[in-house]
Design brief:
The strands form four sheets. This protein has an eight-stranded mixed beta sheet, with no helix packed on it. A seven-stranded mixed beta sheet has the order 17-18-19-20-21-22-23, with helices on one face. Strand 17 (620-622) and strand 18 form a beta hairpin. The chain has 735 residues and is α+β, with helices and mostly antiparallel strands. Helix 9 (244-260) packs parallel to helix 11 (287-304) and helix 11 (287-304) crosses helix 12. The protein is globular, with a radius of gyration of 28 Å. It has 25 helices and 25 strands.
Length: 735
C-alpha cells in the first residue's frame, strides 16, 4: 500500500471527530461495527489482498478504543471533582490571561488533598496573585467544569485539553517562589518569547508591531480589536494563528541560510529539526502547530536518510501522533480546519496541478501563464472546499471575501514576516532611518492591515445559509465525492473535472440556499441569566438588542453566535445597566457592530467604540430588513422591531402595563420581557411571550402565564430560545 499512514491517521481523525460528543454507547456500537468489518476483511481474500479495508477497519476500531479509554480513565475521574472543594497544590505553567475581569492561569497539579496527582487545570483569580510561571501555589480551591452550562463551550474546552478548573475559596493561598535558575526549560521559552516581542515592538511600536508579533509567534494579545475583527471578517485570521504556513516559511528560511554556509545535508536536517522544535515551543504547541511541526519533522527525517517523504503520509502521521497523545484533540475546530485545508492543498498538488501542467505545457507563453494562474488560484479553492461543511456548521454561512483576500493578501504575508524579522535584527545595529528592511516591512504590514479593513467592509460577498439548507448542501458535496471515488477508474485523468465540478456545486448551492432563506426571520433569545440579550436576523442582517445577563458563559455564547452570523450590523442598548449591557465591553473586544444605538454608554465602552456610528435611542429608523422604533414608559426604553414576518416588542425591564405604550407597540406579535410580565398582557393576545429570567424565577413566571392560557416560555437556565418566522408562520424551539 502506497500511503498506509494517510489511511490510518485520517481514519482515526475523522472517527474521533465524529464520535467526540456522542454517548459512550454510540462509540461502543461503532467499535463493534469496525470489529465486524475487520473480521470480514481479514477472512475475505480479495479484501485482504487490497489491504486498505482491513487497515481502515483496524484504524477506526483503534480510534474508538482511544476515545473510550480517555473518557473512562481521564475525563470522568476529573469531572467527578466538579462542585467540590479540595486542598490544591499546583504549579503555574504560563502567564496570566485576562478575561471578564478575571485572571486565568494554566497550571499542572502537584497534589490534591495531599495525594500526588498530575493533570492540567485552569486557575481563576478575581485579583492578580503574586505568581510568575513555574511558581507553586497552594490553598483551598473550589473545582468546576469550564463551560458546563454551555455544551458548545464545554466541547471547545475539552478539545483544548481543559477538563477542570478551580478558583480559591479563601485568601490564604500560599505561594512558593521558585528561583529563576531552578525553573525548567519552559520558563526559558517564555522569556525568549517575551524578548522577541519586545524586540519587534522596539522596531515597530504600533499596530504594525502587533501584527508582526502575531504573524511570527501567534501571540494575538497586542492585536487591536478593530484589526482582529477586520482580519476575521476578511477571512484571513489564519495569518495570525501559527500553522503550516509559518513553520514552512521558518524552516525554509533556516535551511536556506544553512545551505549558503555549504553544510552537509544531514547536518542541515539535524539543525533544521532542532530549529523547528524550538519554533513549536515558542509558538505555544497549539494543535495546528503540532500538526505542521510533525509534518515538517517527518520531511526533515526523510531528508536525513536521503529518502523522499510523502506529504499525505506525513499528514496522517501528524494526526496519529496527536490522537495518541490526547484523542479529544481531534474535536478541536482549529485542528480540523488546519488538517482539512492541508488535505485539500495536498490533493490539489497531487492530482489537479500536474494534470494542468501536462495539458497546458510549459513551452508556450500562454501555457506558462495558465499554469502560473492555476498554481496561484486553485490551491486557495482546494484549501477552502474541504472545510466548508465545518464552516457552514460553525458560522451558518459562507464568506466569499475569504477567496479574494487569500488571493490578494496572503501571498504578501511571507514577505512581511521575513522583512519584519530582518528589520528587527538590524534595528539593534543601526538607527531606524538607515534600516533598509524597515520600510519594506512596514509597507507590507500596512498593506495587509489596509486591505483587511477594505475587504471586511464587503458585506455583499457574505451569504447566510439556513440550517436545513446547509445540511442539504453538505449532503450534495459528500454524495458527489462518493460518486467520483466509486465510479472513477482513472482519478488522475478526471481530477480537474472533479475539482471544478465540486467547486461549482458548492458555490451554486450557497447562492441558491441563501436566496431561499431570504424571507426567514430568526430571533434568538439568549439564556444569559438575569438580563436581556436578543439577536434578530434576516437576510444576513443581524441586530442585537441588549447584551445583559449574569450567566458566566453568557458573553462567550453571544460572541460565538455573532461570529456564526458573519455580520454584526447594530447593537441596541436601551440603557447602560447590568441587565442591558453587562457584556457590552467584552462583545466590542471581539466583534464590533457597524452602528450602536444608546443614550448612556456603558463604562469603558467609549474606549472601544471608535469607527462605530452612534445614534440615540429615540424615534424610528429603517435598516435593510427591519423597522426599529423606540418608546419610553416611566423612564424605561422599549424597543419595537418589525419586518414583513413578525413584529417583536422587547422590554429590557418590567413595565406595569402594555396600555401605557403606543398602539403599534401594543399589537406586537412577539413580546420579550425581563423578570416579569405586564399585568394586562392577557388583553392583547400576542402570538408568543418570552420571559428572560434566571433559574427558578423564570420557571415560576412561565407556569403563571401558562395558567392564564398565554403561550410562553422562559429562559430560566434551560437554554436559548429560537423563534423562526416565515410567511406568517411562527415556530419556537429551545436550543
Amino acid at each position: 500500500m502506497k500511503r498506509p499512514f494517510a489511511v490510518i491517521g485520517l481514519t482515526v481523525f475523522l472517527t474521533i471527530a465524529f464520535l467526540f460528543d456522542k454517548e459512550t454507547g454510540v462509540t461502543a456500537a461503532v467499535l463493534a461495527v469496525f470489529a465486524v468489518a475487520l473480521v470480514i476483511a481479514l477472512f475475505t481474500k480479495g479484501l485482504r489482498k487490497e489491504k486498505i479495508l482491513p487497515l481502515f477497519a483496524l484504524s477506526g476500531a483503534a480510534a474508538c478504543i482511544f476515545l473510550l479509554a480517555v473518557n473512562t480513565f481521564y475525563y470522568l475521574p476529573l469531572a467527578s471533582y466538579d462542585g467540590s472543594v479540595h486542598r490544591l497544590k499546583a504549579r503555574i505553567t504560563d502567564e496570566a490571561v485576562i478575561e471578564y475581569g478575571n485572571f486565568y492561569y494554566d497550571a499542572q497539579t502537584v497534589s490534591v488533598d495531599g495525594e500526588n496527582m498530575r493533570f492540567n487545570i485552569r486557575l481563576v483569580f478575581s485579583e492578580v496573585p503574586d505568581v510568575t510561571p513555574y511558581d507553586v501555589i497552594e490553598g483551598d480551591f473550589a473545582f468546576y467544569r469550564p463551560g458546563a452550562s454551555d455544551s458548545e463551550y464545554l466541547k471547545a474546552n475539552l478539545a483544548s485539553g481543559l477538563v477542570i478548573g478551580a478558583y480559591p475559596v479563601s485568601d490564604n493561598c500560599a505561594v512558593t517562589h521558585i528561583p529563576e535558575a531552578e525553573k525548567p526549560l519552559g520558563m526559558k521559552t517564555i522569556n525568549l518569547r517575551n524578548a522577541i516581542k519586545r524586540a519587534v515592538y522596539r522596531a515597530f511600536p504600533d499596530e504594525n508591531g502587533a501584527l508582526a508579533v502575531a504573524m511570527l509567534l501567534g501571540d494575538k494579545s497586542g492585536i487591536p480589536d478593530s484589526l482582529y475583527n477586520d482580519l476575521r471578517m476578511a477571512g484571513i485570521v489564519h495569518l495570525i494563528c501559527v500553522s503550516g504556513f509559518h513553520l514552512s516559511l521558518f524552516a525554509l528560511f533556516v535551511i536556506g541560510i544553512l545551505r549558503k554556509l555549504r553544510l552537509r545535508e544531514k547536518l542541515i536536517s539535524v539543525i533544521a529539526s532542532l530549529a523547528v522544535i524550538g519554533f513549536m515551543l515558542l509558538a505555544g504547541l497549539t494543535y495546528s502547530v503540532q500538526r505542521a511541526g510533525v509534518m515538517m519533522l517527518v520531511y526533515l527525517l526523510a531528508n536525513f536518510f536521503s529518502r523522499r517523504s510523502d506529504s499525505l503520509n506525513s499528514l496522517g502521521i501528524s494526526l496519529l501522533v496527536i490522537s495518541v497523545i490526547y484523542p479529544y484533540a481531534m474535536a478541536s475546530v482549529s485542528l480540523q480546519l488546519s488538517a482539512l485545508s492541508t488535505l485539500g492543498i495536498l490533493l490539489c498538488n497531487e492530482y489537479v496541478l500536474p494534470e494542468i501542467r501536462n495539458k497546458c505545457g510549459m513551452k508556450t507563453r500562454r501555457g506558462r501563464f495558465a499554469v502560473s494562474a492555476a498554481e496561484w488560484i486553485l490551491p486557495t479553492f482546494a484549501a477552502m472546499l474541504p472545510i466548508q461543511p465545518l464552516m457552514l456548521r460553525i458560522s451558518g454561512g459562507f464568506n466569499f471575501t475569504t477567496i479574494i483576500s487569500n488571493l490578494i493578501i496572503t501571498p504578501f504575508a511571507g514577505g512581511a514576516v521575513v522583512m519584519s524579522v530582518l528589520a528587527t535584527l538590524l534595528s539593534f545595529a543601526v538607527p531606524l532611518q538607515f534600516n533598509v528592511f524597515y520600510y519594506p516591512a512596514k509597507l507590507l504590514l500596512r498593506y495587509i492591515i489596509g486591505m483587511s479593513e477594505f475587504m471586511a467592509e464587503a458585506d455583499s460577498l457574505r451569504f447566510g445559509v439556513g440550517e436545513n439548507y446547509s445540511h442539504i448542501l453538505i449532503g450534495i458535496i459528500l454524495l458527489y465525492f462518493a460518486v467520483v471515488v466509486l465510479l472513477s477508474t482513472r482519478l488522475r485523468s478526471s481530477a480537474v473535472a472533479a475539482f471544478l465540478t465540486a467547486c461549482m456545486l458548492f458555490f451554486s448551492g450557497v447562492f441558491v440556499s441563501s436566496f431561499m432563506q431570504r424571507s426567514v426571520t430568526e430571533i434568538r433569545v439568549f439564556d444569559s441569566g438575569n438580563g436581556t440579550a436578543v439577536l434578530l436576523s434576516c437576510s444576513g442582517e443581524n441586530l442585537l438588542v441588549g447584551c445583559g445577563g449574569t450567566s458566566f458563559s453568557g458573553e462567550t455564547e453571544i460572541v460565538s453566535e455573532l461570529e456564526r452570523s458573519g455580520r454584526f450590523d447594530a447593537l441596541i442598548l436601551p440603557d447602560s445597566s447590568e441587565n442591558s449591557s453587562s457584556y457590552a465591553v467584552g462583545i466590542f473586544k471581539e466583534i464590533r457592530p457597524t452602528e450602536l444605538f444608546c443614550d448612556d454608554m456603558p463604562e469603558n465602552l467609549h474606549l472601544l467604540s471608535g469607527g462605530c456610528e452612534i445614534s440615540p435611542v429615540s424615534g424610528t429608523c429603517e435598516t435593510e430588513n427591519f423597522t426599529v422604533s423606540f418608546s419610553k414608559v416611566n423612564g424605561i426604553s422599549i424597543v419595537l422591531i418589525e419586518n414583513e414576518n413578525i413584529s417583536s416588542l422587547i422590554c429590557p425591564h418590567p413595565i406595569d402595563g402594555l396600555n401605557l405604550l403606543p398602539e403599534k407597540f401594543r399589537n406586537a406579535e412577539l413580546i420579550i420581557t425581563r423578570s416579569d410580565y405586564p399585568a394586562d398582557i392577557a388583553e392583547y393576545q400576542a402570538d408568543f411571550t418570552v420571559i428572560c429570567a434566571e433559574n427558578q424565577r423564570g420557571l415560576i413566571i412561565q407556569n403563571e402565564l401558562h395558567s392564564k392560557g398565554i403561550p410562553c416560555a422562559a429562559t430560566g437556565g434551560c437554554g436559548d430560545l429560537l423563534i423562526t418566522a416565515e410567511n406568517g408562520v411562527v415556530s419556537v424551539c429551545r436550543e
